[in-house]
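We examine the record.
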Amino acid sequence: MRSRISAFTIAVALAGAFGATHVDAQSPPKPAAATGQPAKNAEQINDTKRFAEHTGLYRATSVVGSGVKDLADKDAGKIEDLLLDHRGHVGYAVVSFGGFMGIGDKLFAVPWDAVIVDREKRTVYVDVKKETLERSPNFTADKYPDPNDREWGRDVRKAWSDASITAAVKTKLAGTSPASLLKVNVDTINGIVQLNGTVDNDKTRQRATELARQVDGVRRVVNNLKVQG
């Protein structure tokens, strides 16, 4: 596993990573079309915080140290660091789950595609279960995994595969009309996706199944959604 990356390196690379990622719960706003003429009375932006607010991107400093919630909206842990690959794409979030489910002070490298960033609520979610934490390799702040251990990455991906599927399904539902799909509860066990909650009509119910089936790794979709009467 790569050594911890400096905050400066992350800050430089993260803008591109967040702009291209498909795991965010909300899409960034589209930039205004270029006209060739400078905008009149345009607000001058002279710091990264205001730039991020205007572009829909995140600063690395606002992500590292942020709290993590599970899908039941309960506090689960904190993002301690981000690990980027050589292209500047976020590969893992280093998460401490503290005393969550009796885990203690262990650290976990959570694949970035298992992380859900809700832009509107400015909240980070992870579909974390006790079984996932028990299967996933972990480490401590003073003893990181061997960077030459190729099986480590495979074991991490395997342990978090259901969480990655859940994140991808929820992202697809959140990015598609109607808005009622945002409220669908998603749970994945061994690649089998279960959809629970209520929707407006039967067409929306069928649409949810279609979207879930489009996600890589989904073996089957169990649609328990009910149509509001």
Remarks:
- Residues 1-29+47-151 form a domain with the SH3 type barrels. fold (CATH 2.30.30.240).
- The two ends are 52 Å apart (CA to CA).
